[in-house]
Amino acid sequence: MDSQAIRDKTVLVTGGAGFIGSHLVEALAPHNEVRVLDNFSSGDRSHLPDDVTIVEGDVGDPIALQEAARGVDVIFHHAAVVSVSRSVDAPRRSNETNLEASLLLLEQARQEDARVVVASSAAVYGHPDELPISESASTEPTSPYGIQKLAVDQYTRRYAELYDLETVALRYFNAYGPRQQGPYSGVISTFLEQARADEPITIEGDGEQTRDFVHVSDIVRANLQAATTEATGEAFNIGTGSRTSIRSLAETIKAATDSSSPIVHRDPRPGDIRHSGADISKANRRLGFESRVSLESGIQSLVDGTRLSPMEANAEPASDSMREGNPAR
Ligand code: UD1
After folding, report:
1. pLDDT digits over 64-73, tens only?
2. Residue with the nearest Cα to atom 19 of ligand 1?
3. How far does residue 186's CA lie from ligand 1's centre (Å)?
4. Within 6 Å (CB) of ligand 1, which residues are found?
């Protein structure tokens, strides 16, 4: 599968100024006409290349959406309220953006007969029954955010069946990389900030919980593959296939930053998922997806401030000593 195959298309990236969206825009812009629909509530204009067309507005605003989507070939849908805790505090508010606006977007895509690639989430699974988690695992989300993502994921797949729309849902595991920042940004950026400031690195609980951390450049590559795949109407796990404990992550970040931060423990997060890890064999088989960035090199590049391009990132998973569990390849 040639993941650079999307060329000379008109594409829309919703949430294109955000963390994942802006990396995707950068990868698309050299070869395609790119539009970005973003309300800049958390995204940043400075992340966008000069030659993209920006429509400022909410995805849930039909006028803005219509303007942004007119004549597009592919829509990458990354606009969302990404904070799980905000979805718990205000479920209807996050439902408006995460679910209602996504439905509006799918309807708009029907009008344009545009392919839609949707950012789904490992949150659809809730507490997993087994590891690694395959796409056919049970889906019992534990938060309004997860419920909303699951509904969008299902709508996305059903739109392929009911309306013959080309759709793909990508279920991201724990994404990390440059530009991930702010209060809801995830454990890697939190630990990095703490380590750089020589402040305590705060592990919630015993640190034995595990996650599948996937670099944003791998996520971008999955999106490019989804843009051209024939495997539409499907959902795919996007992770690395390996799990890392939070304690091991804390130690790696401390070492990589040469920090004198103590590693301390706080109360576990209520409702925290103990283990999460993707079975990526379906994405590998059907999309040609593989993860190329090991956690060590991903963290090292964050520390050094170097960029990993989605096309050039090196594969070195076998030597990754931090990994545990069964790589699902
Ligand atoms: C992540 C996603 C979430 C998604 C879920 C799917 C992020 C930011 N969130 O949640 O959108 O719904 O996967 O499964 O990627 N931790 C610490 N110390 C800290 C911060 C976190 O020990 O300072 C621990 C947490 O308790 C947790 C783990 O690190 O056990 C990961 O936390 P976090 O990065 O917030 O992601 P998830 O909760 O896995």
Report:
1. 999 999 999 9
2. 187
3. 5
4. 82, 84, 121-123, 145, 174-175, 184-187, 190, 202-204, 209, 211, 246, 269, 272-273, 276
Q: What is the pTM of this model?
A: 0.94
Whether residue 152 has pLDDT greater than 60:
yes
Closest ligand 1 atom to 204 CA: 22
User: In this structure, what token pair is assigned to residue 41?
Assistant: 């509530």
pLDDT mean over 174-183? 90
Q: Which residues contact 15 (CB under 8 A, 6 or more apart)?
A: 21, 37, 38, 43, 59, 77, 78, 79, 80, 119
Q: Which residue puts its alpha carbon closest to atom 7 of ligand 1?
A: 186
Crossing angle for the helix pair 19-28 and 216-228, to the nearest 10 degrees: 60
The residues carrying an active-site annotation are 145
Question: Which pLDDT value is given to residue 284?
Answer: 98
Question: What are the chain's domains?
Answer: 10-304 (3.40.50.720)
